[in-house]
Automatic annotation (TrEMBL):
Tree of life domain: Bacteria
Compositional bias ranges of the Polar residues kind: 151-161
Region (Disordered) residue spans: 151-175
Name this polypeptide is given: DUF2059 domain-containing protein
Annotated keywords: Signal
One Pfam family here: DUF2059
Compositionally biased residues, Basic and acidic residues: 163-175
Signal peptide as annotated in the record: 1-24
Organism: Arachidicoccus ginsenosidivorans
InterPro entries per UniProt: DUF2059
Domain DUF2059: 90-140
Amino acid sequence: MRKFILGFLLACTSITCFQPPAKAQQNDSIAPEKKEAILELLEVTGAKQNLEVMASAMRENLKTQIPDITEPILQEVNNALNYDSLAYIIIPIYAKHWSTQDLKDMVAFYRSPLGMRMMKEMPAILKESMAASMQRGKDLGARLYEKVQQLKQAQQDSLPSKNEVEEKQPLSDDI
């Protein structure tokens, strides 16, 4: 589990900290009006606040999963999950899937009373959802571990005992 988590952290760090020139060129090719609309959408949807909630939950989970994790590693997690890196990665994706008008319409929705309420509730919803998902994952892991142990035991029980094996082998005098 530790290797998986550390691998995940390394992947997050490498994805967000080392921004390849191709992405920079891709971001530069996006029309300024469209890029501005994307950044405005990220702002009104609370992307920064949601990211901070997610990073905080991930940090607490790491502390639980790896009690001896060091503060510098936790700081790397925070650095890897910063808003600028998120925006840098998301802008070309949003630009690919949404027109400038679509983006402006979404901004208008999120500035509406319902959109604002949705954004107000979303951090708590994300935090609760993440906690529930982590608990479900732990429960599933425990059940799977138990099932594997039962299967191993059943397999062990089906093997012949040492005495049964010796009884079936012919004695050298009988040959």
